[in-house]
Amino acid sequence: MTAEPPADQPQHPAQPSVSTPYGPPSGQAGPERDNPTGQGNTAERDNPAGRDNPAAQGKTVAQGRNTTGLASAIAGAAGFVLSFVITLAQMPLYGQSNYTTLALVSVVQSVLTGLLGVVALALGLFAVTRRGLSKTFAAAGIALGAALLIGLLNKLVVVLLLPLVG
Questions:
Q1: Mind listing the pLDDT tens digit for each residue in 23-46?
Q2: Hey, where are the domains in the chain?
Q3: pLDDT exceeds 80 at position 133
Q4: What is the DSSP letter of 64?
């Protein structure tokens, strides 16, 4: 009973397999035997099935860093942090019944939040159109910028409708 040779290592019974330190064993095909002219892409000859190529295997390939998308996400996050900090800073003004200062701080908060929302949305939309780069931060920036602008719109609707209620 004889053992079958592995499928990826062809064996030729007429030629003995002798290993040399300078190339494939004699009797087996190597790059210089497959392509005697020495021309062509050696990567394609050495790896025709694309075993080391993640894109050929259907895997995602690491993409380049998208700094515009990162700036978009930072602008969106900064808008939320700034809005939260200014809201906390307004709390003492409610207790003092200083409504003029409270209104001024609220307007400044709305303007800064709106600007950061527009910047985050614009940078995110620009970053998502760039080919070959990661879109994760760009998508986060778009979402954060849109949420800031929707929150600002909500605040404006409440301010405009409040006098109609009272």
A1: 555 555 555 555 555 555 555 555
A2: 67-165
A3: yes
A4: B
